[in-house]
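Before relying on records like the one below, remember that each one covers exactly one chain. Contacts with other chains, cofactors or solvent are not represented anywhere in the record.
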Amino acid sequence: MESFSYTVDVGIDVLSKDQLQALLLGSPDIITVFDRNGVILYISPAIEAVTGFAPEELVAQEMLSFVHPYEQRLIRQRFGGLVQAEASKPIQFRFCAKSGKYIWLETVGGNQLTNEALGGVVAYLRDIGERKRMEEQIHLLNHTLEQRVVDRTRELATANEELELQIQDRNTIEAALRENGRLLDLIFTTANIGLAVSDEEGRFVHINPMYCTIVGYESAEQLLGKPYFSLLPLNEEAEARALYGRFITGDDTATLRERTVVRSDGIKLDVLTSAARLVRENGQVFVISALADISERMQAERRLEMALLELKAVYQALPDLYFRLDSEGYYLDYHALSLDDLPAPPEQFLGRHVDKVLPGELADSIMEGMSNARATQGLVSLEYSLASHRRKRFYEARIVPMPAGHSLIVVRDITQRKQREEDLRKALEREKELHTLKSRFIAMVSHEFRTPLTTIRSSAELLARNHQKWTMEKQDQYLRDIGIAVTHMTQMLEEVIYLGKAGSNKITLAPWATDMHELCADIINSIELATDSITADRVIVNIMDIVSNAGNIARMPVVDAKLVRQMLTNLLSNALKYSAVSSFVECDIQYRAENNVEGLPVALILRVSDKGIGMSEEDLKFSLDPFHRGANVGSAPGTGLGLAIVKQSVDLHGGNIEVLSTLDVGTTVTVTIPCTFVS
């Protein structure tokens, strides 16, 4: 990386005028000479190639007017050090080129005020825009490389895990194959379903104990050699033989059937059968069949069918909306007095899962409610809201468990009840808020008005008793005290009246082009008169001037000057009041820029910062509420209305306010007001 370092205070005084002129003209860097106030006395021709300005356009100009606002303070401090003959280190800052764009420069300077050839502060400037771009590209490339290394490492770790899993699966399969023969025999013997092997004629050649138990025989020997069809009712035997023959030849692949078999004691039994073909190497075909007793299930299904019919009759009599869902959350049926009550047309939700019909969070709540209802076998209630016909409606869902894992969800519209509850809640909150504001207002009036009234009364009494023997100067002092007290009381009353008008929408905007320089000066003067103290020395005002791309015409924001004055007056008064008299308060007037046809900004930004007592995190939450004062304000006078009034004025402009504060460090309030700009 190219470095930038010059020694500017050694050797220059021994150069001749011609040598010095050759040095200034031939240097690839920009050489500048300032007077002790920062005004450019000379600037080398190299400036035009970098900024577009010819040297004569910059001579007699103040350097800070071209520096980006964010670096102006740093440049001002460094330049002040150079004037005091302090050593200079390279610094970087942004310079506004003739095109209106900011470019990055690096500078180092030295004090040559006593040099007869120069007689000023010398600074060397170098264009570092390309270096800045290279640094950004290098940073981006480093980040991309690091990310690729992380991704590749993750991919390798995933591949290793998959390989280990594959090895484990292969070992498991090999172990299972070794045990396969033994397990098959064990499964066949101990299975809790009936298993049998029959030949091509349907004769049993192998039967497990459970098969015998299901069909009512004591041992396999009683069935071996007998045809499978002997267990079926006589009227089904012929059809079963034909199906078996087609299954043996492979013409019929149906393997799962519900049948009726006749036990050895003559009782008919509902069973579920399944079969598989086994073809040996010699071409001989066997059938492996499984048999399960489903008599209880069939009886339960018949009972359930009857219960569902009865339940359906009950559903039809319900006045509320209901849905029946299965255990997995799929809609089975519904009941509604009107299709308008449904979340969607029936064809769009019947047979679909609840998360395909309702919003995600509501669907999850319904599934969780169904699970809880099944677990407790009790009623589960939940409330929710849905947008219906462009309005929000509230519902109560009662979830009841049903047989087979199904759930009945009864839905009732509780919008009116919720509205009544919300109205009651708002009324209670408003009543509490009014009670709180009333208490704060009474406390504020009793506290804040007592001091100025006491001042007025005591000053008036003293004037009445002593005006003949007091000098005019002393009488004027007491009259000023009375005036300040009256002004303070009047201001408090105006603040309360303003809040009342703003709360009832009785204040309208009256925007016009406002000169921020004049406005700030007038505000500071008014604060001094109201407090009888010197304020201007403590307030540092930085105002950015706006020049459009269309020409060198100064622009002013179009705002309600009365409300802006009120904002700045309250912000500056608070900052001065809650900070030490030895500290400074900064007031920055800036603009938020956006690209538009004329290159003008779109918002006015007011920022007031102090290094005062600050606010705690708890007080910061309520800093914009009327009558709220921080716990650390002590005996400092105030009504707690300042920031509340600022917020009201900001809201009227359609802007926003941000308050940042740290206890014992200070407070910064930033107000952004959207507006237009005119000449």
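Residues 1-14 have pLDDT under 50 and may be disordered.
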